[in-house]
Write a structure and sequence with these properties.
By secondary structure, the protein is of the alpha/beta class. Helix content is 32%, strand content 23%. It has 10 helices and 14 strands. It has a 7-stranded mixed sheet with strand order 2-3-1-4-7-6-5. Strands 10-9-8-11-12-14-13 form a 7-stranded mixed sheet, with helices on one face. The protein is elongated and about 75 Å long.
Length: 374
């Protein structure tokens, strides 16, 4: 079957590498989604294991849709009865980009009617109670090509289950995981987040260091689907548990706000990694290595000034932080996410590489510093 993994813009390459590592064949990569070929077992494995995906969907088909008639007929031709029973619920939602069909409510109505007609032909009924299993149908129309899918995830994959409460401007777990992946963790290099907030980056780093699958403790909507045997979920979780290891990398988180440190510890405990992360209350403007003469990598998501106070306050923080690290850890690698286009000027150092990423709806740059400063 064909599966579609969605992600935040900018993470397609990282997500593709995750899919490759699981042994599945990529078919297509476009903004925000990767399509690949895989067996049914992959529905369990990908939901449980993918760190940078937002959700996983089964692709039923794609076709040209210049008109509502095209959308109706193309949708009706798909094999909906292979998945949806006569009592099941099948709500519709979707997106349309750069296409002649741009009215989402109208497209929803057309897709719903087409699915009803398709199922009616199979089950010989016209009225569907929709009291059974919920199958969320999603359509995506891009450049007049409509793709119809069924969601297998339910609550987004960024919801790992360890962060019931978060800070004022939380970093999405999938984005934090991607930042950690981009930093290329190494066993002999410590990881530090000197502005850790609710601890998301450090927790995701610890989970990666331990090889803890991000979805191992949560449930997914497709566990109720009768066409996915329970054995796939059992084997998927057993396999993931068997690969958990003791970490070698040491991880440190600090924040000036004691309440945030208390929350970080609470979240880390829920994730099962509290004893692998050292948290403490500290001012990032006075940051020093927690281990003398250690090699280290800083990964952090400092205040932007957009949601956390005034931009000038944020820039003053960047400047003070930059002046401090220049004297204390000039050769450490750093991966810093912010929406401030003048970040490098405030920090007092030009990055070696920038990567555009999105934190929710906020366009950001991941500023990467990995060359030794001379």
């Amino acid at each position: 079957m064909e599966l579609v993994a969605t992600c935040l813009f900018g993470l397609e390459g990282i997500l593709g590498e995750e899919i490759d590592k699981l042994g599945y064949k990529r078919i297509e990569t476009i903004d925000g989604r990767v399509t690949f070929e895989a067996p049914v077992q992959a529905i369990a494995d990908c939901n449980i294991r993918l760190r940078t995906a937002e959700r996983l969907l089964v692709k039923l088909g794609s076709f040209k849709a210049y008109t509502f008639d095209d959308l109706f007929e193309g949708t009706k031709r798909l094999n909906w009865s292979d998945y949806i029973g006569k009592n099941d619920a099948f709500p519709v939602k979707g997106h349309a980009i750069r296409s002649k069909l741009y009215s989402i409510p109208d497209c929803q109505k057309i897709v719903k009617k087409a699915v009803v007609d398709s199922l009616s032909a199979k089950y010989k009924i016209r009225n569907f109670p929709e009291t059974g299993i919920k199958y969320q149908i999603e359509f995506f129309i891009l450049n007049d090509i409509a793709t119809l899918m069924i969601d297998t995830t339910g609550a987004g994959l960024h919801k790992r289950g360890y962060r019931a409460v978060s800070g004022i401007a939380p970093l999405r777990e999938t984005l934090a995981a991607a930042m950690v992946k981009l930093s290329r963790m190494r066993d002999n290099v410590i990881i530090c987040d000197p502005m850790c907030g609710s601890g998301t980056i450090t927790i995701e780093a610890a989970m990666q260091a331990c090889n803890i699958a991000p979805g191992i403790k949560r449930n997914f909507s497709s566990e109720a689907y009768p066409w996915i045997d329970e054995s796939h979920w059992i084997s998927g979780r057993e396999s993931a548990r068997s690969e958990i290891t003791e970490p070698i990398t040491r991880i440190f988180g600090s924040d000036i706000d004691k309440e945030m440190i208390d929350l970080s510890r609470e979240n880390a405990a829920k994730a099962g990694v509290a004893h692998y992360i050292d948290f403490k209350v500290a001012d990032a403007r006075k940051f020093v290595s927690p281990i003398e003469d250690a090699r280290g990598t800083i990964i952090c998501n400092p205040p932007y000034g957009e949601r956390l106070g005034d931009i000038e306050e944020a820039r003053a923080l960047y400047k003070a932080f930059g002046n401090n690290i220049k004297n204390t850890i000039p050769n450490w690698q750093m991966y810093i996410l912010t929406s401030d286009e003048l970040f490098e000027r405030s920090l007092g150092r030009r990055s070696d590489k920038k990567r555009v990423l999105y934190n929710g709806m906020i366009k950001c740059n991941l500023y990467q510093f990995f060359k030794s400063k001379k």
